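Q: What would this chain look like folded?
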Amino acid sequence: MAFDDLESSGGAISQINVTPLVDVMLVLLVIFMVTAPILQQGVDLELPKETITPIEGEGEQLVVSIDKGGTVYIGKDNVVEINKLGDRLKAILSTRKDKRVFIRADRNVSYGVVMAAMGRIRRAGIDKVGLITEPS
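A: My prediction, written as C-alpha cells:
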C-alpha cells in the first residue's frame, strides 16, 4: 500500500500520537480528584438544622458566610466588611451566568446581622438569595 511506504519516501508521519494526550488527561484527572474536596466553600459554622431539599444549580455557588462573631466572608477566606458586601457581590456576579447568592450563618449569630447582610445583597440588585441549613 502507498500509505505504509514511509521509510522509502522520507516524508513526515501523518498519524497523531495519542499517548502524550492520554498521559496529560490522566494527570489532570488525578489533580482534579485530589483538589475537588479541598475546594469546598465556607467557614466552619454551626448551622441550624432543618429538613429541606438540597441546593441545585450549575457550577459553583456563591456563598456568603457569617460566623458567630458576625464576621462576613465571601467564599472561604475572603473577609469583607458588611458595608461593601453588595458592591463586591455585584462585581463577582457580573461575570457569572448563575445570579444566585446563598447565605450560611452560624446558629448563634444575631438575626440582625443576617438581615443586614441580606439587605445589602438585595440593595445591590441581587434578587435570588437563599439560606443554607444542615439537614436535621
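The CA atoms of residues 6 and 70 lie 72 Å apart.
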